[in-house]
Amino acid sequence: MVNIQSKNKLHSLIESKALLLDSSTVVVATDENMDVIYVNDIFEERTGTSSDKILGKNFLELLSEFNSVEKVDGWLQKIAEGNIAKLTLKMRLLENAQWIHFSAIPFLEKKDGFKGYLFSGIIKDEEKKLLEILRNNEQEEIFKDLKVAGEYFHALMPSPQKFKRLTHGNGFVFYKPQRLIGGDWYFYTLSNRKLFLLAGDFIGHGIQAGILSTIFITLLRKYSKWEHFYDPLSVVDYFIKKFCNIMQLNNHSNIHLSLISTIYDYDARTVEYVSFNFPIYHYQNQLNRLESYKSDINFVDWNMNNWRFYHLHLNPQEWIWIFSDGAKDQYGDALNKPIGIKKLKDILIEASQFKNVDDSEQFLVSKSIEWIGTSTQTDDITLIGIKF
């Protein structure tokens, strides 16, 4: 084991790597064989073990009690390649085993050629407390700005009440973003007795996805010549190209969108649609998923000729249901697991039995509230139903 003469020298190494140290940070330093050569006072405090009992022990053996070999090996591979690696690992602390968010980096002392590793981590529960402090103090102005952005985002979204009027009381929108702004969005317009309805989900949550959604919705709202579109795929093609042009996307861009584009013809009693990883179901005595593509839209590789749209004739009392993945992935308070597609389908079947669409809507809303309970919403939720 390599001996480092003083803690001061090690502290300078730590600071040179710009690791964030505070009263909640656990720090461990090892040599190139992963034998512990230093732990800070916080590590001793949290583990209840003095440093002289830890020094010289293999750090991997300390981790192996609660973490799989594969998990740790993959982490070490990143470190060996010279990268800063981050991973949530479990370690035994004073009272019990707790999760710690660890960052690890390799370091080299050029003077004597010493190689080793620095590990710093924040205990998960204490990290939450730190974030709460930031929210209440330093981040106050940011949250004010986000609130304004959220108000603008929701102002852009079309009115659910107007959608109900356009469908003569036979349709409704259930929209519930996880945060102030989110990746889910929807849009509709009526042109020549044809209802154009689109819904999408930019991959991700929060600010980034919300900004992308805001740009896309703005493009849809500004367009006024909907009668020029001859099918739902041509709608997608037009706005994908407009979006790419505005965003100046290149081959390195990594933006993906789940999307459905539909056109309802009330005179012909038909729906034409194209769906990219955005489920669409048809209820006619039983609930069936309609044919759709399982992949998201990759803006960089977009080519309209690679896809096709579908056509369906609708009879009275039949339903069309579309929903984002958040509708089936939301965790429930009682069972602490996602609602899942099977349970969601059962709910949609039951909702399809009501004669009055308002009753169907209230049933779905109450089921959502009942399922979520006191648990935290885990994703944006968009669910739209239209009865013919």
Would you give an account of this structure?
This protein folds into two domains: 7-132, Beta-Lactamase (2-Layer Sandwich); 143-387, PPM-type phosphatase domain (Phosphatase 2c, domain 1). 35% of the residues lie in helices and 28% in strands. It is built from twelve helices and 16 strands. Helix 11 runs antiparallel to helix 12 (357-372). The longest helix is centred in the middle third of the chain and has 17 residues, at 140-156. It is elongated.
User: How much helical structure, as a percent, in the residues?
Assistant: 25-40%
Number of strands: 16
H/E order of the elements?
Answer: HEEHHHEEEHHHEEEHHEEEEEEEHHHE
Number of helical stretches of at least 4 residues: 12
CATH topology of the largest domain: Phosphatase 2c, domain 1
* Distance from first to last alpha carbon: 77 Å
Shape: elongated
Sheet with the most strands, sense and barrel status: 6 strands, antiparallel
Q: CATH homologous superfamily name of the largest domain?
A: PPM-type phosphatase domain
Second rung of CATH, namely the architecture of the largest domain: 4-Layer Sandwich
Strand content: 25-35%
Ranges where pLDDT stays below 50 over 5 or more residues in a row are 1-7, 15-21
What average pLDDT do the residues reach? Answer: 79
Return the CATH class of the largest domain. Alpha Beta
- Structurally, the number of domains stands at 2
Would you tell me the structural class of the helices and strands? Answer: alpha+beta
